[in-house]
Structures are given as structure tokens and as C-alpha cells.
Specification:
CATH superfamily of the largest domain: Response regulator
Number of domains: 2
Structural class: alpha/beta
Largest sheet: 6 strands, mixed
Shape: elongated
Order of helices and strands: HHHEHEHEHEEHEHEHEHEHEHE
CATH topology of the largest domain: Rossmann fold
Strand order of the largest sheet: 7-6-8-9-10-11
Helix content: 40-55%
CATH class of the largest domain: Alpha Beta
Number of strands: 11
CATH architecture of the largest domain: 3-Layer(aba) Sandwich
Number of helices: 12
Radius of gyration: 21 Å
Length: 340
């Protein structure tokens, strides 16, 4: 396998031993396909970063996320785009993504990264005790953890990078309430999982404003579809079968194609549909007028916040800007920002 990189650099990027990488590169037997895939992915990441290989400090960080692929793709693009803005400091990003991950598996991954070594971890994970304990071990080892888009506020994380999720939920409630009007209706609120603090905050904000200002609107919740189309679609279909008055959607956790398909299969109209995140799917659905609003915040801004927080620990002498919430933008078909 031809390559221009040192074995030790590939091993560091992949999180493997140099001996394992050497076996893969030389085509020796006894290597799992998954391991070979990790080596190829590490080389691809190094290839992307090679143009920024200047005489600055190199910081290797790990981005660990339980999230649907459509969102992890957007996060990868944002972090890779922001790397070049921090020169001469060079961030080497190692991505660990899964659409569904048990808490025990996620904690094992965090522990492996801690033992292997890293300059920092960017984490999107459920707010459960085992994950909080894993973050505490990382902090005790001197490894900063920055939570991304969903927080672990009672953990030892160093910073949070993302939007004000409660305010985002309140904004969604305002849009739904104003459009449904005094006649009201029933709103289907879809969460990927109640384990994520960010989604819980969005729902809390949504419920507060609906209860305070739009008493003619009631809420039906579905959860644990993990943002995947198959599971989310099944949950929504069941909810529509039991709730004939549902006429609006606030999609907190994604899977919007499946949500729309369930409404179409039930021959049910959607008066207003508010979603989150301007990923590839939502761009298409918004352009086709199948959803009405997307509450969007700039993931590149989140990446900058994460990089700065990690630099504050890794490079104490450097100047870093204080962290702040990402701004939430209401996107319609008429003000959709260009793909970056």
C-alpha cells in the first residue's frame, strides 16, 4: 500500500500500534478488515491535512459522536474547514462516529482514547452516569473534553460548543404557535432519544412557550428513534394511528424524510413543520417546500469554539476567545445559506 506518511503518524491518526499499521501496509495476514479500514481512513485524513503541514504546533484531537450519518457528515465538513483557520497551529482530527452506540461502548472508546493519548476530545454523547464518569477520568488525566451541540453540564467537561437549545425550542414554539393560530391543534414532537440533554432542553423550551402562550395547542411526543429513518418512521406511524388530530411537527431529532413519509402514508396534511440543522436532507426538503423552517446554527462556529477551548488547555500561553452560544438562524427556502 503506497503512502507518503511515516508509520508512526498513521498509527497515531488511526489509534493503532505501529506494528499493526505495518502489517496492514505490507499486506501481512491476520489483520481484520475493520482494522484495515481504520488505517485507510487515517491515511485519507492525513492526506487532507498534508497541505497544512507547516512549522507550527500539532494538536491531535478526537471527535466522538453518537449521531445519524447525515449530521456527522456535516460536522466532519465543518471541522475540516476550520482546521486551516488556526495555522500555524495544526489540528489533526480523528473521527469516531456511530448512529447508535450503547453507553458502555462509548465509554470504552473514551477510555481507549485516554490510554492512547490525545490533546482533547470533542464529544456528542448522552447525559448518563457512565459517560459522566468517563469524562471525569479524561479530565483527571489532563485531557480536555468539549461537548458539542448537546451538553453534559454536571460533568468535568471543559466547555460546551453549540447553540442555546432551550432558546431554540422556544423559537420553534413561537413559529408553530403563530402559524397554527387560535384554532390550534396537536404538534408531534420527535426526539432521537431522551438521553441527550440538548434535545431535552429543546423540548423543555418548546413546551414552556406553548403552555404559556398557545393553550389551544397540545403536544404528542415520540422518542428513541435515534434519528434513523426506519425507527423514526415506525414511531411516527404509530403515533398518527392513535392521534388523528396531529397537524404539525417539531422535529428535534431528525429523520424528517421518514416523518413526512408516515404522514403521506396516513394521508394526513402537515400545517407546519419545523426542523433542526441544515444538513443535506433538510436542504432538499426545505427547497421542495416539504418542511417550512429549519433552525440552523453554524457548525463551523462550534468547531472554532471547540478548537479554542482545547488550545486553552494545550497552549496555556496562547490567547483564546471566551466560549459563547452559536446564534440560531431561522432558515426558509428564501434565505438558505450556500453550502460551505
Amino acid at each position: 500500500m503506497a503512502h507518503p506518511f511515516l508509520v508512526k503518524d498513521i498509527a497515531f491518526q488511526a489509534g493503532l500500534s505501529t506494528a499493526t499499521v505495518d502489517r496492514v501496509l505490507n499486506g501481512r495476514p491476520g489483520v481484520r478488515r475493520q482494522t484495515e479500514t481504520r488505517v485507510r481512513a487515517a491515511m485519507a485524513e492525513l492526506e487532507k491535512q498534508s497541505g497544512a503541514d507547516v512549522a507550527g504546533r500539532k494538536l491531535a484531537i478526537d471527535i466522538v459522536m453518537e449521531t445519524p450519518e447525515r449530521f456527522s457528515d456535516a460536522v466532519r465538513v465543518a471541522f475540516e474547514a476550520e482546521v486551516a483557520t488556526f495555522l500555524p497551529t495544526v489540528f489533526r482530527c480523528r473521527f469516531h462516529f456511530a448512529e447508535v452506540m450503547r453507553a458502555a461502548e462509548l465509554v470504552q472508546l473514551l477510555d481507549r482514547i485516554r490510554l492512547r493519548g490525545t490533546h482533547g476530545i470533542v464529544l456528542k454523547a448522552p447525559d448518563v452516569p457512565d459517560v459522566v464518569a468517563g469524562v471525569a477520568r479524561l479530565n483527571a488525566a489532563g485531557i480536555p473534553v468539549v461537548t458539542l451541540v448537546t451538553d453534559l453540564p454536571n460533568s468535568a467537561r471543559s466547555a460546551y460548543a453549540g447553540a442555546d437549545n432551550r432558546a431554540a425550542g422556544e423559537t420553534a414554539a413561537y413559529l408553530v404557535g403563530r402559524l397554527l393560530g387560535p384554532l390550534g391543534g396537536k404538534v408531534l414532537v420527535t426526539l432521537s432519544s431522551g438521553r441527550f440533554r440538548g434535545e431535552e432542553e429543546r423540548e423543555i423550551g418548546f413546551r414552556r412557550v406553548i403552555r404559556a402562550h398557545y393553550p389551544s395547542i397540545s403536544i404528542i411526543e415520540v422518542s428513541e428513534g435515534h434519528g434513523t429513518d426506519a425507527a423514526t418512521g415506525s414511531l411516527v406511524a404509530a403515533a398518527l394511528a392513535s392521534e388523528p388530530a396531529v397537524n404539525a411537527v417539531y422535529s428535534v431529532g431528525g429523520g424528517n424524510r421518514a416523518v413526512l413519509a408516515a404522514f403521506e402514508a396516513a394521508d394526513r396534511p402537515v400545517s407546519v413543520f419545523v426542523a433542526h440543522d441544515l444538513d443535506a436532507d433538510n436542504r432538499i426538503l426545505l427547497a421542495e417546500r416539504r418542511i417550512d423552517f429549519v433552525l440552523h446554527h453554524d457548525l463551523r462556529s462550534d468547531a472554532r469554539s471547540a478548537f479554542r477551548a482545547i488550545m486553552a488547555r494545550a497552549l496555556p500561553a496562547g490567547r483564546t476567545a471566551p466560549a459563547s452560544f452559536s446564534a440560531v438562524e431561522i432558515v426558509t427556502p428564501y434565505n438558505m445559506p450556500a453550502v460551505q
